[in-house]
Design a protein that fits this description.
This protein is mostly beta strands and 193 residues long. The chain is built from two helices and ten strands, in the order αβαβββββββββ.
Length: 193
């Protein structure tokens, strides 16, 4: 099978992957420990959004994950809708897209996908993380995902420019056995410290 080195770029990787894996049924993604080729976990996000992870193996220094995908997969981040939420940490959530393997419906053990568009509102002192929760009507968390915020240049928020805009991706997995119902998406921001 052909192999490719991909330095992930949140602006171009979706279309690059669409081209590289056209006609494939299975894709293997190898990552090395402590590398910065994909700090957003963007490629696994795209694989989960458009395929299904069927295996993972961890070795000294690297990890291999493999996925089944439809041979005609066209990778994308979803249709981002506008939203305006200002967080006291100095960033705003300006857009969001979300769904699951069958649109907006999920079952236990499946992962949702969420795309978030962030914007800095002035200089940021801390390195920030975000979380995405799915909550039931009683407020119980049935899925959670936390990740660092990175700019398009792969730097954490304390190095962002004023008005820096970037994307974040989340893949919260619904707890197996979660009953059917309506669930809300909650997004928050907190300091890494």
């Amino acid at each position: 099978a052909p192999g490719y080195y991909i330095m992930s770029d949140i602006r171009t990787t979706a279309s690059e992957l669409t081209r590289l894996v056209a006609g494939s049924k299975r894709v293997f993604w190898i990552t090395w420990k402590n590398n910065d080729t994909d700090p957003w976990e963007f490629v696994p996000f795209l694989r989960h959004k458009h395929g299904h992870q069927v295996g993972e193996a961890v070795f000294t220094g690297y990890k291999v994950r493999w996925y089944t995908i439809p041979p005609d997969a066209e990778f994308d981040i979803g249709q981002i809708g506008p939203i305006a939420v200002n967080f006291q940490e100095g960033v705003s959530l300006t857009g969001i897209a979300y769904g699951g393997p069958q649109g907006a419906e999920l079952t236990g053990g499946q992962r949702a996908w969420v795309t978030l568009r962030w914007q800095a509102k002035g200089p940021l002192q801390d390195n920030l993380k975000y979380f995405v929760y799915l909550r039931d009507a009683k407020g119980h968390v049935v899925a959670q995902y936390d990740w660092m915020m990175y700019s398009t240049q792969r730097v954490s928020t304390s190095y962002w420019r004023d008005d820096e805009t970037t994307l974040g991706f989340a893949m919260p997995e619904v707890i197996p056995g979660t009953p059917p119902g309506k669930y809300e998406i909650e997004v928050g921001v907190y300091s890494e410290r």
